Amino acid sequence: MTKSTVKKANKKAVLELKDVSKIYDLGDEKLTILKNISVTINSGELVAIVGPSGSGKSTLMHIMGLLDKQTSGQVILDGNDVSGLSEEALAKMRNQYIGFIFQQFNLLARTTAVENVLLPTLYSTDLTDKTARAKELLTTLGLGERLNNKPNQLSGGQQQRVAIARSLINNPSVIFADEPTGNLDSKSGHEVVEILKKLNAEGRTIVIVTHDLELAKIAHRVIKILDGEIVSDSRKS
Amino acid sequence: MKITILAKTAFISITRNKLRSFLTTLGVVIGVLSVILLTSIGNGLTVFVEQQFANLGSNLLIVSPGEIVGEDGGFNQEAAALSLSTSKLSIIDANALERSGYPLGDVSVVIEGGVDVRTEQGKRQGFSVATTPEYSTLRNTKTTKGRFFNEADVSSSRKVAVIGSKIADKLFVGVEPVGQEVTLNRVRFEVVGVAEPKSSGSFGGPDIDSSVYIPYTTARSALGHEKISYILVQAMDKSQIERAKEKIKTIMDKRLNEEDFSVTDQREILKTIQTILGTLTMGLAGIAAISLVVGGIGIMNIMLVAVSERTQEIGLRKALGATPKSILIQFLIESAVLSTLGGVIGIVLGILGAFALRAFFPATPALNSILLAFGVSLLTGIVFGVFPARKAASLNPIEALRYE
Fold first, then answer.
1. Which one, A31, B99, B152, B378, has the greatest CB density within 10 A?
2. How far is Cα B330 from Cα B393, in angstroms, rounded to an integer?
3. Of B12, B312, B321, which is closest to A106 when you measure between CB atoms?
4. pLDDT, tens only, A144-196
5. When comparing pLDDT for B237 and B83, which is higher?
C-alpha cells in the first residue's frame, strides 16, 4: 500500500482524511465499508478514485464531499476540521467549498440553464447577483446560445455542461465528479473529459469517482479502492 | 437563502400540476366559501332585523299582558300565548298612562287578530291591527294613498280601514283602493288609505304589509275582538326610555297584579334577537370551519406526495448546500401558497355568492369574517404543511440523490 505521504512544498492540502472509517452497525454484525483511510488531496490535483462497485469508493466520495459522516477519524477541509459539525454547518461548507457533478446530471426540470447554474447561490451567504457569472460560465462551456433552454431542450452532453457550470458557480475549493461520463455517448463523454482537463489546467482541484479505467487515465493520480481500503495511490510522473 | 426565490419555486411547482393544485385547494375553497356565506347571511339577518325595528318606530315601550319577557330577558313563549287570551289590559290603563302627569309621548292600544280579507277580486288571509290614530306616528306607519283613520272614526266606531300595501297589490289590481269596499270577516269596511310598504322580505313574524288597520272601537263592536294585545307608549327621547319604563311600571302596579303585565322596550327584544343570531352565525361558521380542517388534511396529503415525488430534487438541493431549514421553508411556503390561493378563491366566490343571494336574502359579507377566513386559510397551509416539510427537511441527501 502506497501512502500519499509525499507533499510537494508548493502544494497546499485542500482535503485531508485521517484514519477515516465507516462502519454500519447492523445489530448482530458490523459492516465495515471503509477501513482506516488516510489520504490528502492537494490543491490543483486531478485525482481519480477507482474501484469496482461495492468497494466503498462512493462512500469515500460522500464523506470527502461532506454528504456523509464517517464513523471515526477526521476530515479536514481547507484547514478546518469538519468532523463534528452539525448538518446545518455541513450544508454551508458544501455550498461554499464543494462542487458536485453527478452521473444523472441532476438538473431541475422546467428550469432554465441559467437558473440551474444559479441554484447553489440560492443557499449561499454571499448575496451578490451571480447571473452574469452564470451566463459567462455557460458561454465558456459552449452553451452561450442555450442560456434559457430547459433541460428537456438540451442533449445529455449539454446538460452535463450545465451541471459543470453549476459546480463552478460558487468558486469551490474542490469539485467531485461522480461517474461524469457514465450517462453520455462517447462523443459527449469525450467533450466532458476535455472540459475537466481544461478546468484542472486552470488550477481547479478535481476528484473523479469512476469504475471506468479509461476515464481514470486522464488523472495525474489514481487511488484504487478495494473492500474499503486504499490498495494503491499512484501518481504520473 | 432568498425568500422571493423560494416563493417563486413554490409557484413553479404549483403551476406544474395545475389540476392537482386546483383539486387540492378545493377543500379550502369550499371551507372559506361556506364560512363567508354563512357569516354574510347571519350579518344580513341582523342588519335586516335592526332595520325592521327602526321601521317599527323609535323609543317605544310595550306594555304586554302577562310575563312575556322572562327575568333573563328571553321570551317566555308559553306565558305569551296564554296571556294574550287572558289579557287584563284595558283602555282605562292606557288612559291612566296618558293622564299620569309624567311626560310621556303618545299612547296607543292595539288589538291584533287574524281576519279574512275579501274584495270582489278575491280573498286573502290578513292581520288586523285595531288601534288608535296615534299608532300611525308611534309605529311610523305612513299612508301612500288616502289617510290614516282619525279620532272621529274611533269615537263613532266607523267601519274604515287602512290596508297594507300587499293587500292593495293583490286584491285591488287595477283599481284605486281608496273609497272601495273591503270585507273583514264578513263585515264591510271602507278603505280610507293604503299603508306604505315596510318589509323588504318575508322574514321575522307577521307580514306587516298584509295588515289591515282599523279603529279599535270598531274591532270591538263589529268584529268582536275584545282583548287588548298590548299598549304602546313612546318615551320622550332615547335617554328617557329607562325612566319612562320605571314610571309605567309604577302606574301599572297600582292597577294590575305584577304577573298580569310586563313592560319591555324594543332594545331588549332587539338585543335578544341579536344574541340569538350572533350565536347561530358563530355556530354555523364553526361547522363550516370544519371543512377547512378537511381541506388542510387534503393539502397535507398532496404535500406528502410532492415530497416523495421530489425526493431527488430535495437531495440535489441539499448536496448543493440547502440547509434543512431552507428546505423546510420552501415546502412550508408551497403549502401556504396552496391554501392561501384556495382562501382567496373562496373569498371571491363567497362575496359573489353573498351578492347573488341578495336577490332573495339580505346577505352582507363582513370584512372581519373575510380577514379571518384569509388568516385561517394561511394558517391551515402552514399548520398542515409542517409535517410534510419536516419530512422533506430531514431527508438524507445521499439516499435522496439515489432515489429514482
1. B378
2. 9
3. B312
4. 999 999 999 999 999 999 999 999 999 999 999 999 999 999 999 999 999 99
5. B237
Domain positions in chain A are 45-66+85-235
User: Taken in order B299, B303, B305, B306, is the CA torsion positive or negative?
Assistant: positive
Give CA separation, A220 vs A41, A49, A216, in Å: 12, 11, 9
- Cβ contact A70:A20 at 8 Å: yes
Kindly list the domain boundaries of chain B, sorted by start residue. Answer: 3-51+273-402, 60-265
Q: A45-66+85-235 has which fold?
A: Rossmann fold (3.40.50)
pLDDT interval class at A114 (50, 70, 90): very high
| Contact: A88, B323; criterion CB under 8 Å | yes
Residues of B with CB below 8 A from A65's CB?
Answer: 319
- Asked whether the whole model's pTM tops 0.80, one would answer no
How far is the C-alpha of A107 from the C-alpha of A104, rounded, in Å?
Answer: 8
Of B1, B320, B401, the CB nearest to A119: B320
Q: How far apart are CA B179 and CA B192, in angstroms?
A: 6
CB contacts < 8 A (A, B)? 58
Q: Which H or E element spans position B232?
A: strand B230-234
